[in-house]
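Me: I keep going back and forth on a fold encoding question. No explanation is needed for now; the record alone will do.

Assistant:
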Amino acid sequence: MTDDRSSLSALAGQRVEYGSRGGAAAGTDPFALFTQWFREAQDEIGEANAMLLATAAADGPDARIVLLKGFAPAGFTFFTNYGSAKGRQIAADPRVALVFPWHGMHRQVRVQGIAERTSAAESDAYFAQRPRGAQIGARASRQSQPVASREAMQEAYDRVAAEFADTAVPRPAEWGGYRVAVHRIEFWQGQANRFHDRFAYTAVQGPAALDEAGDWTLTRLDP
């Protein structure tokens, strides 16, 4: 039997020393800074666009990893099934949070904002460029709903594949995009002695485009 106390003691002693990148510089434009950090993350780590999406469920907070599929001054975009747990939660309360956990770079970006559905045209355009197998899967899946077995899932997939064997797979009406309009974005850069760099941009008028001049206040935070 494993000695849990010994295991916990070893875990408590684990740590990574930060600070190899030097201090982080905050400019006046949070969108420009995110663009710079994201490009650097793409060069250095796998799936830099993987982000944690936190939502408010009826019984408390909920969270999962989704993939960023676009960002622009209007906000951060991802796609999913509107009938999924996250889709239902967003419909009830559109306030969400995102976290980009770029551990390998000793960086983290936290976003708070309001999730709104993208246009049908934008969802159609993204769905059309997905791999065909993913398109079939999106039509076959009742995301987050109970399913009897893996075999039942495969049967549903096979039925959809047969139905559209000779034609393009249309986007399901219940599948599409969300764009998170930001009201706060915080940048975190690990530093030596856990004396990290943290600075947050807050939209003066609430959720807004990231590059609206004069709409943001910049605050440096203690680590």
Q: What stands out?
A: Confidence is low (pLDDT under 50) at residues 210-214.
